């Protein structure tokens, strides 16, 4: 080391070969994220949504259920099944954006994570007052991995109890039980 080199840059350098081995940096894999149903944080129309789906379908679908059942893009995009994940997003955009229909639920969307040409994760978000990740499907090697979700909280979430109290003066102790009952899943 020359006298001009700054010793402070080396103070965190390992003293032994064992320490150096433990500090090796693992290979960093860059993932590509595909959103379905949104462009720049705005719900897009059904045509754009279809194009996003077509783009994702160019990837190899490497998603599996926990029981090792392999999934295909047809699983998510079955035109005969309007409740399939991608079809439900398309139908939502046909009503919400194309026909400008007022909708009670928040705009559902999906996020696909790809490594190379493989789709290794699909997150699906839906909800009434706020969007939550209702499906988190992964490639087999990621099943046990602790991974953050794309959106951990909905920045546009709606609290109906607070709204009724703020706008109409209805106390929470009256509105909350009614709203909780209305939001119970059948």
Description:
By secondary structure, the chain is of the alpha+beta class. The chain folds into 2 domains: 29-155, no CATH class; 158-186, no CATH class. It contains 6 helices and 7 strands; from the N terminus they run αβββαβααβββαα. Strands 1, 4, 5, 6 and 7 form a 5-stranded mixed beta sheet that branches. The chain has a two-stranded antiparallel sheet with strand order 2-3. Helix 5 (160-168) runs antiparallel to helix 6 (172-182). The longest helix has 14 residues, at 85-98. The N and C termini lie far apart (72 Å). The model is unreliable at 1-28 (pLDDT under 50).
Percentage of residues in DSSP E strands: 15-25%
**Sheet having the most strands:** 5 strands, mixed
Number of helices: 6
Tally of domains: 2
Uncertain residue ranges: 1-28
Structural class: alpha+beta
Total number of β-strand segments?
A: 7
Order of helices and strands: HEEEHEHHEEEHH
The gyration radius over C-alpha positions equals 23 Å
Give the helix level as a range of percent: 25-40%
The average pLDDT value, as a whole number, equals 82
Distance between the termini: 72 Å
Quick one: overall form? globular
Quick structural summary:
This protein is of the alpha+beta class and 186 residues long.
Index terms:
186 residues; disordered N terminus; 5-stranded mixed β-sheet; globular; alpha+beta
Helices and strands in order:
Blueprint (H helix, E strand, L loop, with lengths): L16 H6 L9 E5 L1 E2 L2 E2 L2 H11 L3 E2 L11 H4 L8 H14 L10 E7 L2 E9 L5 E7 L21 H9 L3 H11 L4
């Amino acid at each position: 080391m020359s006298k001009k080199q700054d010793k402070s840059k080396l103070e965190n350098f390992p003293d032994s070969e064992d320490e150096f081995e433990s500090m090796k940096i693992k290979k960093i894999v860059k993932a590509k994220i595909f959103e379905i149903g949104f462009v720049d944080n705005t719900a897009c129309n059904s045509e754009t949504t279809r194009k996003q789906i077509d783009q994702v379908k160019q990837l190899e679908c490497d998603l599996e259920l926990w029981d090792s059942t392999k999934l295909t893009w047809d699983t998510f995009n079955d035109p005969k099944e309007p409740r399939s994940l991608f079809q439900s997003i398309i139908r939502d955009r046909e009503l919400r954006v194309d026909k400008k229909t007022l909708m009670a639920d928040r705009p559902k969307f999906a996020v696909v994570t790809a490594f190379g040409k493989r789709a290794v994760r699909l997150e699906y978000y839906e909800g009434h007052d706020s969007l939550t990740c209702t499906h988190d499907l992964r490639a087999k090697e990621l099943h046990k991995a602790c991974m953050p979700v794309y959106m951990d909280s909905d920045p546009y979430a709606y609290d109906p109890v607070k709204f009724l109290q703020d706008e109409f003066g209805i106390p929470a102790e009256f509105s909350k039980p009614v709203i909780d009952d209305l939001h119970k899943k059948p």
